[in-house]
Amino acid sequence: MSAAQQYLFLDFEFTMPETKTEPRRFFPEIIEVGLVVVVDDRVCDQFSSYVKPMRFPVLTDRCKSFLNITQEQVDQGMSFHELVALLHQYDRSRPSTVVTWGSMDMKVLRENCMNANLPFPFTGEHRDLAMEYKLFFGDKNQTGLRKAIQEYGNEGVGKAHCALDDAFTTYNIFRLVENDKKYLAKTKPPTIGERIDFTQLRKKFAL
C-alpha cells in the first residue's frame, strides 16, 4: 500500500528593511516558521519557531513593529540550517504537497537556501493557494489571506502575521475551496425534463 499523501501548510515571516526603498544588498530572511501537517484530512502535527537570520541578524524597528516581534525572540530561535533540516525531514517522511498563501514563502526559502549553500528541502508539488483562489473565483487581483477567509464568512485563526496562525488559516481556506470544487464537480447540468415544467405545458394544451 502506498503512503498517504501529506499536505504541509507552511507560512514564514521575514526580515524587512527600515525603509521601503531597499538597499541593494538587503534581501529578506526567514525569522519565523509555522507548519501544519495534514494526512487524510486530519491535522497530525504542527510546528512553530522563530529563526535566527544569518546575513542581517539585527531586526529593523519597522520589522519589529510590523510583526510585533522582539530581537530577543529571534535571537533565541532555531538556526536556518536546523529549519532546512526539519523541513527536509517532513518532506522525506512521505509524499508531500506544500501549500502556501502566495508565492513569496517558497521564493524566499529558495533564495535563503542558495545564500546559505544548502539544498532546497522539498521535492514534491507546491500549490500557491492564493493563485488558486484568485482563478477559482475569477478575481482580478490576488486577495489577502485574512480577507479571503472573511469572504467565506469566517475569521482567521489567532492573529495575522503570526506564522502558525496564518498556516492554520491557510489550511482552513484550503478545505473550504476544495469542498467547493468537489461540489461543482458533482453538480450535473439539468436535463431537458428539469428545464421545462411539463405540467404547465399539459395544462396549456388541454385548454
UniProtKB/TrEMBL annotation:
InterPro entries: 3-5_Exoribonuclease, ERI-1_3'hExo-like, Ribonucl_H, RNaseH-like_sf, RNaseH_sf. Keywords: Exonuclease, Hydrolase, Nuclease. Residues 6-183 form the Exonuclease domain. One of its GO terms (molecular function) is nucleic acid binding. This is Or 3'-5' exonuclease KapD.
